[in-house]
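User: I'm putting together notes for a lab meeting next week and I want to include a structural view of one of the chains we've been expressing. I don't have a solved structure, so I'd like a prediction I can at least talk through. The sequence is below, exactly as it appears in our construct file.
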Amino acid sequence: MKYLVFAIALLLMPLLANASEGSERLDLTANWVGITSVLLFFVAYLVVMAEEFTHLRKSKPVMLTAGIIWGMIAWYYQSHDIPHLVENALRHNLEEYAELMLFLLVAMTFVNTMEERNVFEALRSWLIRKGFGYRSLFWVTGLLAFFISPVADNLTTALLMGAVVMTVGSSNKKFVLLSCINIVVAANAGGAFSPFGDITTLMVWQKNIHATNGIVDFWAFFTLFFPSLVNWFVPAIIMHFAVPDEKPKSEGDVIAMRRGALTIMALFLFTIALAVCFHSILHLPPVIGMLTGLSLLQFYAYYLKMSGENTHTSSASSGNSSAPVPFDIFRKVSRAEWDTLFFFYGVVMCVGGLGFIGYLSMISQIIYGGWGATNANIAVGVISAIVDNIPVMFAVLAMMPDMSVGQWLLVTLTAGVGGSLLSIGSAAGVALMGQARGIYTFVGHLKWTPAIALGYVSSIGVHMALNRNLF
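Assistant: Thanks for the context. Below is the predicted structure for the 471-residue chain, given as structure tokens.
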């Protein structure tokens, strides 16, 4: 159901390539090309929705549809002797996707490498052995989720904290449910105030490199810290009194970080600093700084490999679940969520094609012209509880409404934390529903949606009050 609503919203708020601003662009919204493209897009999403039954990876139908849509557009323009307009628009869409994909690929590689070096397992082991009570663990896992997600991503953070909750309190279903809700809200809120915390914030930061208005620099995002904190803290305070006031048994093995873990963590922080410097000082895309940092990680991986360091990998074909192999950084690259990245490509290119056809201007006038920026940006957050926030934010960035920095930060906040309203509204929630299957459920989360909504409204109010000078 989420994918269907996702598809509808994408049609209402599509991407538009900057190159399509030329006077030769044709309005194909009522043409057979436009109608066929819309139908193909819906069919592709129907196939995506059936992934659970067909076991066909979701990237395949949208990638195929993207190629067909742009092929039809190009053929139509060629037949009207307009040869290069479509090519320029497509290259623009592809360039923006490539920058974002490479950035995410580097971040995923660092996270996977730290995971292999037992960084997250060591943290989980330490929390389990500390012997916290249920209420203390509720706050500790929430606080850690809030501060880890700005550096890692909300999905990794939620899975890490969820593992702690399940290990310590699996016998107490009420504690697990409330803690999972708390972790989802905290992880999404923490990712909203950092350019690295969520894909949507990263898109806003990178997009505005090329923007002519509404520029948001790196440090401006941190003005969302207190609004994000309020977004998590308000529902956490309400849920605190429902958490059982008991103390579980503290058991668990001591897990130490593997050699090189601290160095890799330092390299990750240095890589983030490089990305900021390349953008702020050299005025280059931040992905260049990320790739430079990846090269440093590759050199360090070479050192680990030459010094005899091994890693362990499962081998399904051989039946060996712990086969030592020389440390190789490209094994970490291969563990990236490639299906997600290619699905992201397909969605971006499909929506880019639909936007080029001409659906954007009419809808943009309705949303930002009729509703006003504040109401529209608040609605974006509510929509992102049902629809994935990535294409929604892409659509807003493609519209590029004439907004103040405060309004750009508002839509960044709402798109980041709006997914907490429902368990299906974010990757963190979906992942925890699988990890705590049968305990953390859609209905269980829905019962606490009013408290989460109170935090959502409060965070908007705090942002508009504290950062009123930015509006």
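A couple of points you could mention at the meeting. The first strand starts at residue 310 and ends at 315. Residues 2-248+255-470 form one domain.

User: Perfect, that's what I needed.
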